[in-house]
From TrEMBL:
It comes from Rubrivivax benzoatilyticus. The lineage of its organism: Bacteria, Pseudomonadati, Pseudomonadota, Betaproteobacteria, Burkholderiales. This is diguanylate cyclase. The keyword Cytoplasm does not apply. PANTHER family: DIGUANYLATE CYCLASE DGCM-RELATED (PTHR45138:SF9), REGULATORY COMPONENTS OF SENSORY TRANSDUCTION SYSTEM (PTHR45138). Keywords: TPR repeat.
Amino acid sequence: MNTPAAQDSPEAADREAGTLLAEAEKLYYTRPAQTLHLADQALALSAALPLATLAAARRVRGLGLSFLGRHAEALDELQAARGLVPSGELQLECQVLRALAIACDEAGVLDAALEWGSRSAEIARTLGDPVQLAGTLLSIGVVLSKGGDPEAGLVQYREALALYERAGDAARSVHVLNNMGINCKNLGRHEEALQHLRQAIEIDAGQPEPAGGCVIARLNMVEPLLALARRDEARAALAEVVPRAQAAGYPNAECFALVLQGELQAADGDDAGACESLERAVRIALERGSRQHVARAHKALWALHKKAGRFEAALAQHEAFHQAERAQFNEDSDRKLRALQVQYDVARARHDAAMARLESARLAEQTRTDPLTGVANRRQLDERLRDEYARAARHGHALAVAMIDIDDFKRINDRHGHAAGDAVLREVATLLRAHCRDIDLVARYGGEEFCVVFVEASANDALRACEAMRAAVEAHDWSAVAPELQRVTLSTGLAEREEADGRQALVAAADARLYEAKRSGKNRVVPGAQPAA
Ligand SMILES: Nc1nc2c(ncn2[C@@H]2O[C@H](COP(=O)(O)OP(=O)(O)OP(=O)(O)O)[C@@H](O)[C@H]2O)c(=O)[nH]1
């Protein structure tokens, strides 16, 4: 719906679209449906939005679709955005490529995510835009880590961190440091992991409004601390994490913290406390739909019950552990299947689009060619002649037109049959084409009449070509068309641009000379007024 501002002027619509898109961009991660709605609103503001704004709107729309889980649509939308980016708008191109990387990552198509991410990073480097580059490197790092290469992920994170630090972006620095800590933990480099996570906590604490970053950092410190046998510190970190995760509303973090707490209590010999923590973890996981750590909780509970001789409870936990593992496995395979489905959908959409393009090219061709002979039809002739005439008049170029008619064609039809007549038309069209240049146009004018437009050709050149056509048709062996058909001849009238006022007059002049050629005995070319010798 057009707002009053948008109706005022295209500039006002563009400005308003910019405001809506800036708002939409902030929400794609948390409220993708709202992002989609705002992008649609921006697109509806005016039919005359600049290309760059259209590209930006479709980019944001694609991100919204991606986080709504509509992966194939998202990738299509982002490809469309890419096609709309005006050349030279590198900043926008960089953003669209990064959005493609993010959407591919969401869809689980990690290799494509890496490809788009690298291309986006390349442009960001050319632009010398540190924040844009850092964002792209962070996305690449996440993809590499997810793809099972935490070491390569770390390389990207390090560069992103340096850029964010230089730009003074504390919130994003905390985010990168957390990711670095997790990667080091997964690589077994516990000291290094603790160093990154501590730094994240420090930066976060220095913020006017500390975010949840420290919860994640503290939580991720526990395992490295345990691995380094620093139990007291692990215990202290956990004691802080559980209430903070609860307060921040991070069920995954709370659940994981309780699992770690349970394991720690079990190792300390506090079996009752351990059971309590682990059961709480399972409850939260079930209540809040956060299943990530539930199998680990059941496993620890199973061991505790078995140790205490509560075999029935141990059996139940054992069963629950396997169920949770199966669910996780199914979820993973579902995700992989979905990624394959997305890849298939995207490939099919591309194939369909290519087929549609081919079909429309075929239809366009069909409306421009004569189906019997394959040469141009009247419509194409009219268009080409209009363009060539205007061009020749503008530049003072020569242009000639020949009207060509098959002599006594009615008799050919009558004696040899309509099919033979058709074959003669096809053969004549082929011979005409063979005796002119690619830039000239041979068209079927109607019935047994053809028209040839000789582009940038003098009257003499055109006359030579028409003579060659006439001679070729006369000398042609027609026995393959009809055994009794001995001879086919052409009558031709020729006119050049300079003697006619307008393209219709040019065709009329050639037609008048064709009539003259017929009257004066056929099988001849009647040239323009006075061709040079
Ligand atoms: N086989 C076939 N015949 C066609 C086609 N289009 C037109 N004709 C025939 O072409 C013939 C043209 O005959 P006329 O106009 O009398 O001309 P003509 O016999 O060539 O005589 P001149 O022009 O004086 O040499 C007619 O019999 C039409 O039916 C076509 O697509 N296929």
